[in-house]
Design goal:
Aspartate Aminotransferase, domain 1, aminotransferase, Aspartate Aminotransferase, domain 2, 7-stranded mixed β-sheet, identical protein binding, binds pyridoxal-5'-phosphate, 4-stranded mixed β-sheet, pyridoxal phosphate binding, Class-III_PLP-dep_AT, alpha/beta
């Protein structure tokens, strides 16, 4: 029996090392990694730039508290602001913490601006924002809330991308609207860019804040640095994590000056957030992702992947229903159980991730090449073929 809490249904695979888009088990079997540790290892495994950044920093200093100036933290913060809408950044260590900071900042903004009653956020059915008490309340999913006492107060859920429903849900206590530009865990469900534009206008009209959770969609995943750029709008507050550290735990909450100014000394904190090791790696990730042409390549590879998958969905229309997503954040909505396709892919040396709405998530590293996309598509083709003949045998 394992000493670990049984919170995960684990595959039983154990990886000893990784290289680019591939992982190798302790016995040397190779797996094509189209999961990237759930959109985390954005530059693949053992990227030389990241390995160098981490090992060089490890020889200097690992940790000092946030009671001191941390040069690389200032630098990464400034670079994130220069490349986005933001004026201020708070560093954390995970996605949930980045969302938690976003929720606190939204409440605090209204508090210091004379509207302390505005503490509620409008969220969306099927959303995922993390596993802390506040973020499970924000996500509002029964399976995540069950058994953990009364949900944290302050979240009002609406269904679908329905601007009228959002408007109807706005009250005197509403602080803002929180959503993912593409629902990752919820099944790679795209939010229409038009809806994001309408939300931006509605928030401005009502004097409330737009909060985007870009923990999964950010850092190049969709072919733009952050996904909201596709919609041509900017949020007031944004959470980022996953790809930001390329595999090292880094989270960030980005805000406008108006919101950031409300977070005065003592209002929030994190012991580990923004520590020198994390910041060295975060800066190295940006070195690569913000290089001219990198994001265009991601968009290009994403198109290639989606085109190939659309062909496979036609060919295997008894197994696959639809291809979704943007850039290298792609979902395969299945007709058979998604877990069966994931298992069939794993048997053939390819890793993917389950998502809600019976979807298989494809999250290759952003450095993926044509050969690996071709290999992935051939593997999906073979797995679908095998599922089909298995179903035929059973019939
Ligand atoms: C993964 C995820 C989170 C939670 O991140 P953790 O690092 O697991 O806390 C929050 N929001 C979104 C959109 C995510 O995909």
């Amino acid at each position: 029996m394992s000493a670990l809490l049984p919170t995960y249904a684990r595959s039983g695979l154990s990886f000893a090392r990784g290289e680019g888009a591939f992982l190798f088990t302790e016995t040397g079997e190779r797996y094509l990694d189209f999961s990237s540790g759930i959109a985390v290892t954005a530059l693949g495994h053992a990227h030389p730039r990241l390995v160098e950044a981490l090992t060089e920093q490890a020889k200097k200093v690992w940790h000092v508290s946030n009671l001191h100036h941390i040069a690389d933290q200032e630098r990464l913060g400034q670079r994130l602001c220069d490349a986005t809408f933001a004026d201020r950044v708070f560093f954390a260590n995970s996605g949930a913490e980045a969302v938690e900071a976003a929720i606190k900042a939204a409440r605090r903004y209204h508090f210091v601006n004379g509207a302390p009653e505005r503490y509620r956020l409008i969220t969306f059915q099927g959303a995922f924002h993390g596993r802390t008490l506040a973020t499970i309340a924000a996500g509002g999913q029964g399976k995540h809330l069950e058994g953990f006492g009364p949900p944290v107060d302050g979240f009002d859920q609406v269904a679908g991308s329905d601007i009228e429903a959002v408007e109807a849900a706005i009250g005197d206590e509403t602080a803002g609207v929180l959503l993912e530009p593409i629902m990752g865990e919820g099944g790679m469900r795209e939010v229409p860019w038009r809806f994001l534009q309408d939300l931006r206008a509605l928030c401005d009209e009502k004097g409330i804040l737009l909060l985007l959770d870009e923990v999964q969609t950010g850092v190049g995943r969709t072919g733009r640095f952050y996904a909201h750029e596709w919609a041509g709008i900017t949020p007031d507050i944004m959470s980022s994590a996953k790809g930001l550290g390329g595999g090292f735990p880094v989270g960030a909450c980005l805000t406008t000056e108006a919101v950031g100014a409300a977070m005065t000394p003592g209002t929030h904190g994190s012991t580990f957030g923004g520590n020198p090791l994390a910041m060295a790696v975060g800066n190295a990730v940006l070195d690569v992702v913000l290089e001219p042409g990198f994001l265009e390549d991601v968009a290009q590879m994403g198109l290639r992947l989606k085109q190939r998958l659309a062909g496979l969905a036609d060919e295997h229309d008894d197994i696959l229903e639809e291809v979704r997503g943007q850039g290298l954040m792609v979902g395969l909505k299945c007709k058979t159980e998604n877990s069966k396709l994931i298992a069939a892919l794993r048997e053939r040396g390819m890793l993917t991730v389950q998502a809600g709405d019976n979807v298989v998530r494809l999250l290759p590293p952003l450095i993926v090449g044509e050969a690996e996309i071709d290999l992935a598509c051939a593997t999906i083709d073979a797995a679908c073929g095998a599922l089909k003949s298995r179903a035929r045998e059973q019939a």
